[in-house]
Amino acid sequence: xxxxxxxxxxxxxFHEFLSHLKTKSGELLRATDLTFLHDFQxxxxxxxxxxxxxxxxxxxxxxxESLNYAELPNWQLALAALEQDEWVVTxxxxxxxxxxxxxxxxxxxxxxxxxxxxxSLTNSSSPPKSATKARWITACQExxxxxxxxxxxxxxFVALAEPLAARIRYxxxxxxxxxxxxxxxxxxxxxxxxxxxxxxxxxxESSLRFESIEAAESALYYSELRQQLGxxxxxxxxxxxxxxxxxxxxxxxxxLALSCRFRWGEAIKATDPASACDVWQSxxxxxAQEQAVRLLYQRGEQERAIALAEAIIRDPLDDTLALFxxxxxxxxxxxxxxxxxxxxxxxxxxxxxxxxxxxxNVEQGVVAWHARHGVQCFHSENNVWRAxxxxxxxxxLMELPQxxxxxxxxRTPRLLQTGEFYAVMQTEIEQRLQYFSQSQQAFKHIQKQFxxxxxxLTSLFHWHSDLLQQLSVLMQAPAQAxxxxxxxxxxxxxxxxxxxxxxxxxxxxxxxxxxxxxPGDQLRRNQARIIQHLRSVGFTVDIRPIVWQIDSDQxxxxxxxxxxxxxxxxxxxxxxxxxxxxxxxxxxxxxxxLNPERRIPxxxxxxxxxxxxxxxxxxxFAEQADTFLALxxxxxxxxHNVNFDYGFIRRExxxxxxxxxxxxxxxVQLARKHLAKLxxxxxxxxxxxxxxDLTNHHRALADARATAELFLLIQSHRLGCQTAQ
Length: 725
Hints:
By secondary structure, the protein is an alpha/beta fold. The chain is about 50% helix and about 10% strand. The protein contains 33 helices and 13 strands. The strands form 3 sheets. It has a 5-stranded mixed β-sheet with strand order 4-8-7-6-5, with helices on both faces. It has a 5-stranded mixed β-sheet with strand order 11-10-9-12-13, sandwiched between helices. The chain has a 3-stranded antiparallel β-sheet with strand order 1-3-2. About 35% of the residues are buried.
């Protein structure tokens, strides 16, 4: 159901946006921007609202009739006035070769046919009417711009006039910091969908996102160019030639310009590989230089490729590129037969057996394996490292005048975005790092920040219930290793945001890290780079391969639920049973009637024998949840048609606001794979076929016991297959 918004809702947002620009970003406004702000305020209210409605659209062109809003009873007069004063123009006045693909995409297939028929009356090569829309777009792109501009359909669309549209794009850019956003962010904020930063974190003293107007405009130019280079519908002929690009101004524009040069090379490598090599080789962009080495070698210019790789080794742009270059030279020049990645894998720890139930979440299986061997560990991956960094430097990133956020919609602290965090905050960072010279002071600081700021909006990491416990383990690593790594993150944060080992643990020899590799998994170069870096600063890091096998120490819990019906979102559990298996033996069993808090249908009572009278005084699931979890600890969830039982259990925990996640196995699927072919794999049919007792069918404990016996039979077959391999 659509919510009725107040009149001029979007206009109110626009005025909020303009107020922020005038009061906090005035130093980035040119005279033309100030003129726009003045002239906009002088418009009639309906004209203002109409301009904002056009700005809010995802495309620059808007159908005239789509501007008929209830809040604008005189929209046609308002639009005519805007056209007369050249605020708004028809699409024919704004079409250019680089904008044409976007305009054609918003037309319907019928409109494309109408456009083609009108502008190419003598063209006998029109596509058939049954052709796809994409084919009609291609046909229209073959027409001249003058033909397209004169077509009647283009007059049905209007757009903001240039350079007004360009200045609005600029204002949006200095406010949001991105080209791919608009005023819908305000609406998402009001609806609670788009969280924003609290006012305390928005920089009130220095809200300039860029150091100058020229730097902001340069960053916008390269940001829009980068976006166009990533659009397959935009041709290079419609863009400025690479030799005509203006020199980038400011750190942000310099980074974007490098990315644009890389994308330009990608676009021309198939048709002009020699030029692509030249562009990439002269570009201080890690991916560009790597691709230059690869492409040169592929084209037979081996000496040039090796010379470039050796130059990279002497002065690498980053660790990942250095790793590639060292590996390339070692293999192509030194005759080394294996890559660095292969060498790392060969030096891995002994592989461990993990049940196939953990396919899709092998890290959880490794955590469970360690737990069975008395070692505490977590599947932490990147998040715990980002959290350590953000919490340790929370004040410097979020609250000091030099840092913070330019607007409430910013995702990343300003100094991280600009790459200036260490340069600007070096004194504060070095003072903060001195905590590592004092016993436990560093972790106490993180603990304080965690408690004080828990749940606050940040894009740097995700809050969760056991994050502090993970941090407490990580912070027990050697102090010098932690200090060195945090300093590296301060100097180049985005080089250290991913690729971290999957497992964080604390064993007899201290804190350890493991990168988990299942059969067929490859070690990525960013993972190898992080492993090498962490080892170099003093962490214990290993690669842990696994093999899909049954571990004799792996416990299982066979579970059955009886319910009031089949839909877990509406129906509830009336009885639950758990049978725990360890070392191939049933070691515990438990069952409990539950009050489903709704009536049990008569047909269900006939099937299960469980009546409303039997459950009226029974406990709620919430009262038995902890008992259930204790029985399931460290185990794999097994059931007959497992998704039914698992789904009901997880839904009950959802109602309690608690997460429930376990690896699972289905005895129906396992029976199909490991037992004889049968006409039916219902529990009753399998029990009859294999002489398993199923007395009191459709009561939870009876079904769970029978399923447990069936599972043990299947396990013997699984073990037999494993031994045969």
